[in-house]
DNA sequence: CCAGAATTTGGGAGCGCTCCCAGGTTTTCA
DNA sequence: TGAAAACCTGGGAGCGCTCCCAAATTCTGG
């Protein structure tokens, strides 16, 4: 009755100030972790906040202040959905974990082909302080465009276009290298690969690792077929490889999901896995352990991926200096029955 | 130099008003789609908005207005991650698609066991207008708690606890029913099931469908083993079933991912699929098509799931009357080689 | 011992918008 | 034909906070 307009519930900064016996300027300083606040005031404010259950109003902070207190997670969805799904969920979990406890909102944007311009306008329009761009397609211009407007970003997955964008990626090269070394240690000599698309960094880096592993031992690096990240394409690629070299004795497949298709073809053609042909995948996705036979694969920690991207972005927003431009996360070989 | 404080880029509502030759009240009315605006003014405002590339400031709208212009997507993550991942990504895509073009932000929250109370405080603290709660675990109290505070919510997946929460779910019952009818039409008579957990609606509903399908034809409904949504547990359940009835001729598995484990066991025991034992899964997840043999399964459209939840929530927020309390989405049988 | 620097505090303008109010104009209906 | 109802508009208070400014206090070093 006495309220003019319907107010949001909860106490305001003014009440905290009153209870703590200081001004609202001081409360604001404490909340934002500024220096030039006496220990005495800081304690009093913290007590008052706890007592009242105060939580700052996000909209007001954003409106009054010079930052948005929010970051965006931008998913660039150009095909390759199959690869994206489990990857994406894991990354998201990591991002969220890293954000926990900070007063930063996570906004989600998916790259609809229709609204490229609108999206850029939104992102650079002061609604967010920075963006995490998960861009599986290496040549996507979005990260660069955003970066050039001065918006702090971190790209997930090495961007292909030259220049220097901050990014986080799994160490695809060394993962593949380790896979090939493992195959060689098993005595395999005719080692093929089903590579990812040539326009994706993830595809290229895994291919390079395979090449290096073979080159180390003077083995031939001819048996390459490019494919996309689907089981069907993996099957097709395997057929091509068998056509090129029916006597191959191992294949490194750049994604578990493609390995599934490849294994189907191998088994249909009467090859025994791993006796005739050893198979190593990549990702250690949920399908790897339940494949028949269980798939030896290179594990990447997607949750760590999300956490690291977020950490890097927040560090930059906090004004930290000397941050590494790019961060590669370790991979590890998971040995199962297929190799 | 002339700017006192660093301002956000872009035009403000005042400029739109000036260009359109009206007051900012009128511009606000147009933006919010209120009635009591002449067609002439409306046109002028729209032209001015397009001309200036104006986009309303979210923080200011939220602060000044009585709504937050944001909804939350709350993921209740109590185990069952494997099921959740692809499901979750699809739902998210649907949510996003439905939100496109509206001035509604999507906030993401994952249920960290640690911050249950903080999360509720945040959600009911006026930061969001409503919430989508994806809660696979049927007895999760969060949806009910939120609903009781008056926050509009839509639950994804039928909530188990009695009462009347608005929810969206796949028609698990009829999907299972159709699967069983298909098996019966194939001449199978000893049809087992690997059911989901008994404390999840999704598990119970699929089990009920199986029961009904058998009951329709007077078949025995004894061969049930409960399991959780992992391949390992599926394998274990299959072993139990074979122990109970080595001569079973079909099995309906409540999730593709469990079916994978079950098929491994069947094949290891020398059963041929589908000749000896027919297998039908549920979900039509990415693994179904690449299983050996390819898995016949019940398809649910997870993207539609997300879209429908969002539509239902936005409709309620818009004050629409006579909304259905619950919505069941159709499923369809996808025939492949396993049955 | 005192000028200047460093620290600590409160006051208040204003971020960009919505929503209430008051006033004017047009339509409706008995 | 006149009063009530519906329609349309602009002005301005204020949402809850941050950040600038000015002032008060304490700490330095020559």
Strand fraction band of chain A? 15-25%
Q: What order do the SSEs of chain A take from the amino end to the carboxyl end, as H and E?
A: HHHHEHEHEHEEHEHEHEHEHEHEE
Number of domains of chain A: 3
Mean pLDDT metric of chain A: 88
Oligomer: homodimer
Number of β-strand runs of chain A: 12
The number of helices of chain A is 13
Which pair has the most extensive contact?
A: A-B, 53 and 53 residues
Second rung of CATH, namely the architecture of the largest domain in chain A: 3-Layer(aba) Sandwich
State the major sheet of chain A: 6 strands, parallel
Distance between the termini of chain A: 75 Å
Structural category of chain A? alpha/beta
- Which CATH C-level class of the largest domain in chain A is it? Alpha Beta
**Relevant CATH superfamily of the largest domain in chain A:** Response regulator
Low-confidence stretches of chain A: 1-5
Helix amount of chain A, in percent?
A: 40-55%
Broad shape of chain A? elongated
CATH topology of the largest domain in chain A: Rossmann fold
Rg calc of chain A = 25 Å
**Main sheet strand line-up of chain A:** 2-1-3-4-5-11
Brief write-up:
Chain A contains 13 helices and 12 strands. With 339 residues, chain A is an alpha/beta fold. The longest helix of chain A has 19 residues, at 81-99.
